[in-house]
Design goal:
- By secondary structure, this protein is α/β, with parallel strands linked by helices.
- The protein contains 13 helices and 11 strands.
Amino acid sequence: MLRIHFTDADLARTRMAAEPDPLWEIGLSLHRLQTRQGRWAHAEWYRDTRQRLARTGLDRIVRTRLIPLFPRAAYYPDFLNPAEAADGLDAGLAAIVATPTDRIRHEVEYFAHTTTAPAWADRLVERDVREDLTDCLRRYYDTAIAPYRERAQARIDAERSIRARTLLHGGTEALLRNLGPSIRWQAPVLHVVYPAADCDLRLDGRGLLLVPSYFCWGWPIALADPLLPPVLVYPLLHEDPAPANTAPLTVLLGRTRAVVLRATAAGATTGELARAAGVSAPAASQHTTALRDAGLISSHRHGTTVLHTLTPLGASLLRAATR
């Protein structure tokens, strides 16, 4: 169990990432290649990625270089998940290369103590070895993550929309109470099911960055070093791969408009609906106008964005179509 201790200042400084963290997604997707747990939720990704890795010749690099460094274990080195990755893949990879050697040496020693580290891990103190590693990470990202980035972003946009309404309705504590079955809020402590031994993380006014992850599965993940900027990476909930039959809705509205209506169920912006339906923003706007004119959705402007939600009629139609 991980216990994260909040002060009032921490509650005020808790926030949620707006985009997938590219390095966390790299590490967690490598975990998905190592286990059948959650395979149903990533079946298409697993099949397509294995084929692309084999076709590009990256499968050997993944097997011999990346998976040994990102084992599905309680720990792998924190410096592989730098905070700079929030600014994009380039910034994150540059931070890995620039990591001080003393920190690398300490984390690699801890890595070897806690799990089976690759024999070459101690060479990560050498800059050229880290540069070679980041080149491998970039090639893996382009092959395994980039093709699914829009899908992951759409899921995170929907997650942020849901959490934003929870936050506005009940505050930060309500947000923390509803992050998933493996997370329990008991003020002033967030209790998180965790693979490592019991530990405590005291935020001490730094706040907490919540990072929803497309590839995280099972339990949330945090950095091991309590002195690093506090982060909690948690899994998005995945729909069952055999959803209820929506064929009647598709016949009535057309495929794209049916997708837009379903995506509106949790509340979504025009941009989120465009990504969910795989259409341009102007096309999504045309579909929302048609659905609004039919009385199925309502639209409310918040600054520069428009939030779309179901009307009672739209919700009834969606329920009837999915029975």
